[in-house]
Specification:
Elements lengths: L1 H14 L16 E6 L5 E8 L4 E9 L13 E7 L2 E6 L4 E2 L4 E9 L7 E9 L4 E9 L10 E4 L7 E9 L4 E3 L1 E5 L13 E6 L2 E6 L3 E3 L4 E10 L5 E10 L5 E11 L28 H5 L18 E4 L3 E3 L3 E7 L4 E8 L7 E10 L8 E6 L2 E7 L7 E4 L7 E8 L4 E9 L6 E7 L1 H6 L18 E3 L13 H4 L1 H9 L4 E5 H7 L3 H4 E6 L5 E3 H12 L3 E4 L7 E5 L6 E3 L22 H4 L2 E12 L14 E12 L11 E9 L6 E10 L5 E4 L4 H6 L14 H18 L31
Parallel strand pairs: 21-29, 30-32, 30-33, 33-35, 34-36, 35-42
Antiparallel strand pairs: 1-2, 2-7, 3-5, 3-6, 3-8, 4-5, 8-9, 10-11, 11-17, 12-16, 13-15, 13-18, 14-15, 18-19, 20-22, 22-27, 23-24, 23-28, 25-26, 28-29, 31-37, 36-37, 38-39, 40-41, 41-42
Helix pairs in contact: 6-8
């Protein structure tokens, strides 16, 4: 339609030329050449020139830009090719012209190459062979327009409502009939717009004007969409936009990235309860770590591989404090010795004997049972709660707060039962090391099934009322956590301890218990109370170093105030619905700690860099196997705290996919002043004692690797504590005589 209108106007100009006269001889031909957008991506060139000699037109010869193609036509005459790049137009009837008249010859259908400008020739010849007009005109470089798609949101928060504005530059002139816009994945709601109608289908919105609109190339379109409900899952989304004519000709088309990033989810307030009075007979303060570790140590806590067997035991409490009494349940059938060892440094021997009882009678306990239902769903919980009590253990003044292994032996077989003793005196320590007791249980398959026994056969309820199958009964303590305890106590740090269960029970007290918290290698399973307490503490200035990965990844619910069992929703969407992120991106691990879980993997090589994390270590030092167990990375499509930095990076091959994946150690500082580091690998603690799980395929860390990781942990400690904790460069006793059991210890990770 536009082409036909243009052609008519050109013809009128040409035919009227003979009617125009004037004294224009001296002005010259005054050749001008212009370009306009045609249909289907073609260009129309219009040649204009002044008649300098009167006569009757025989033909007009025009050069075109070199490399031009297309099916070329004109009006009121025919077009033919003289030679490459030269065309001849012949009038279809007699055309007399007078001096001063203006020729106007359009050429349609050209596909002109990019570039320019071009100097093009125009020559009009009369029927007598005389030149009626001749000259050179310049065709400027053709102007093209990029779509320049821009998509913005007034409230780009996943899980909330927003207005979206789609804008684009018209790249081809035409009559606009519709604009098609891709909506963010999962968008919902009754959306509206203005100045037209809006319909939605299959993830797209289509806007149509009330009547067709003529638009020129270079015009800017802007279509608002109101009332868009965003999915709780956001990210950086690439969305498309296209404008069409009624016949489907594309007037503009392209895409833009829209960042829909959820900030950290608000968490419920956690009550700040006071400390209970110190029970009679219990101290109101405890000896320092240095004084405690000066006491005689022993290597007798180690259970040799030859004593692995059927004997097993568990305690009625995950953690305790001075004044508590707990029960021990053992299956053996023979008299046993029960010895409590406080784990630490102790001249490099790793433990101190605190309490013992010999010749304790035991029975062969009945097999654990697996079953149970709730809300019509099978729980498949494996429990040994029906075992009879073997012994009661009083926690008295001899039990200094710390991590303990209770060693039970019948002379043939032996096993551990782990215990954490809290300092409930109200003393605030420089450092608190958390024990990942809920995660130990998730992976525990003693006597039946664990959470990971299968997608449809694994447990939906987990209980602490059974022994641990891993780590000779220690859960994941020996494989993933004992190294951090050994290191901290070897340095004489002011350190105290508690468990996941304590974070849920006493989380409001965290700022009163310590200025800095170390999370262990594998601290995956968090209740609402745990996450809320950790978030609240960080927002009140408590520093956190997560010396692991995959932290706060799965959501659990304790069944009652005893916290002896917890539930997990594996029924809604399998393993997916068990994760915190299933609640939305705001609940992912990265908004809390700085990086997000990537995958499980065997040990992969790592090379030190030059950031502050590696101060005191030669850049380029190889740490074979340090990227191990499970890893995290800082995703671009999840919330990044302002100032978040990647202070170390590596990669490894994911076990399930076989693909390479990144590992990022990240840091940031909260408005409260709290510093947060996410280590993003399981390997810190096991390298500190030169013993990593045997199923990780990690080479036994060399002395150099052990020293390097020790330096890294020292640097982390000083940085994250804002200099409040100074780590001595050497321990008081350098000879490490019994750092770890010399036996095969495996640790399970994600399937």
């Amino acid at each position: 339609m536009l082409r036909r209108v243009f052609a008519t106007a050109s013809a009128l100009l040409l035919l009227s030329a003979s009617l125009i006269s004037g004294q224009a001889w001296a002005a010259g031909a005054n050749v001008t050449i212009t370009a306009t957008a045609g249909s289907s991506g073609t260009t129309t060139l219009t040649y204009r020139a002044t008649v300098t000699r009167a006569g009757t037109v025989r033909d007009i010869v025009m050069s075109i830009p070199a490399g031009s193609t297309g099916r070329i036509t004109s009006v009121n005459g025919t077009v033919s090719t003289v030679s490459p790049g030269v065309l001849r137009w012949r009038p279809s009837k007699v055309v007399p012209v007078g001096v001063g008249a203006r020729f106007a010859i359009p050429l349609y259908g050209l596909r002109v190459p990019s570039g320019g400008p071009w100097n093009l020739r125009f020559t009009a010849t009369g029927t007598t062979g005389l030149i009626l007009s001749s000259g050179t005109g310049t065709l400027a470089a053709l102007r093209t327009y990029a779509p320049n798609i821009a998509i913005t949101a007034s409230n780009p928060i996943p899980g909330q409502k927003t207005s979206l504005n789609y804008a684009a530059t018209v790249t081809r002139a035409g009559v606009l009939a519709s604009v098609r816009m891709q909506l963010p994945k999962g968008a919902f709601g009754a959306v509206t717009s203005v100045n037209g109608t809006l319909t939605t289908s299959s993830g797209y919105a289509t806007w149509k004007p009330r009547s067709p609109i003529s638009v020129a190339a270079g015009a800017r379109l802007g279509i608002p969409i109101y009332g868009v409900g965003l999915s709780k899952y956001g990210g950086i989304m690439t969305l498309t936009m296209s404008a069409l004519t009624s016949t489907g000709i594309v007037l503009t088309s392209g895409s833009d990235s829209l960042a829909l990033i959820a900030p950290p989810a608000p968490m419920p307030a956690v009550p700040v309860a006071g400390f209970a009075p110190v029970p009679a007979g219990c101290p109101t303060s405890w000896p320092s770590t240095t004084v405690e570790n000066a006491r005689p140590g022993t290597a007798a806590w180690v259970i040799p591989a030859s004593m692995n067997g059927k004997l097993a035991a568990f305690l009625s409490k995950v953690s305790a404090t001075c004044g508590d009494t707990l029960d021990l349940k053992v299956t053996s059938g023979k008299p046993v010795s029960v010895i409590a060892y406080r784990m630490g440094y102790y001249q490099g021997l790793g433990a101190r004997e605190v309490w013992r009882q010999e010749n304790v009678a035991t029975v062969v306990q009945p097999a654990p049972v697996t079953g149970g239902t709730a809300n019509g769903k099978p729980l498949r919980m494996t429990s040994a709660a029906h075992w009879t009590k073997t012994l009661s253990i009083p926690i008295g003044s001899a039990w200094a707060p710390g991590t303990y292994l209770i060693k039970i032996s019948d002379g043939t077989f032996a096993s551990y039962a782990p215990l954490t003793v809290r300092d409930d005196t109200g003393t605030k320590h420089a450092l608190l090391i958390q024990q990942a007791t809920t995660t130990w249980e998730a992976y525990n398959n003693y006597g039946g099934v664990s959470f990971y026994s299968g997608l449809t056969t694994g447990s939906g309820r987990i209980t602490s009322n059974r022994p641990y199958a891993e780590g000779q009964g220690s859960g994941q303590y020996l494989t993933l956590e004992q190294g951090l305890v050994f290191w901290a106590e070897s340095k004489g740090l002011d350190v105290t301890y508690w468990t996941n269960h304590d974070l849920d029970a006493f989380g409001g007290q965290l700022p009163s218990r310590a200025g800095t918290v170390f999370l262990p290698a594998h601290d995956e399973y968090y209740s609402w109370g745990m996450r809320a307490a950790l978030s609240q503490a960080m927002n009140r200035g408590v520093n956190v170093a997560n010396l692991g990965a995959n932290t706060a990844y799965r959501l659990i619910t304790f069944t009652d105030s005893t916290r002896r069992a917890w539930d997990i929703d594996r029924y809604t969407d399998g393993y997916t619905s068990t994760t915190w992120r299933y609640l939305g991106d705001a609940y992912a691990s990265q908004p809390l700690l700085g990086a997000e879980y990537t995958c499980a993997l065997p040990g992969s090589p790592f090379t030190t860099g030059s950031s502050w994390l590696f101060a005191g270590i030669t850049p380029g030092t190889a740490l074979p196997g340090f990227v191990a167990g499970e890893i995290d990375w800082a995703r671009a499509d999840l919330y990044r705290h302002p100032g978040l930095a990647v202070v170390a990076a590596g990669s490894g091959i994911c076990r399930t996919s076989g693909q390479s994946a990144p590992m990022h150690t990240t840091t940031f500082t909260l408005p409260s002043g709290a510093r947060v580091l996410n280590g993003s690998t399981f390997a810190f603690a096991c390298f500190l004692v030169a013993r990593c799980p045997s199923n990780w395929t990690v080479p036994t860390p060399s002395a150099q690797s052990q020293r390097a990781v020790g330096t890294m942990v020292a640097n982390i400690t000083e940085w994250v504590s804002r200099g409040q904790i100074q780590v001595p460069s050497d321990t008081t006793a350098t000879a490490v005589r019994a750092t770890v059991p010399k036996l095969t210890l495996e640790t399970n990770t994600q399937p």
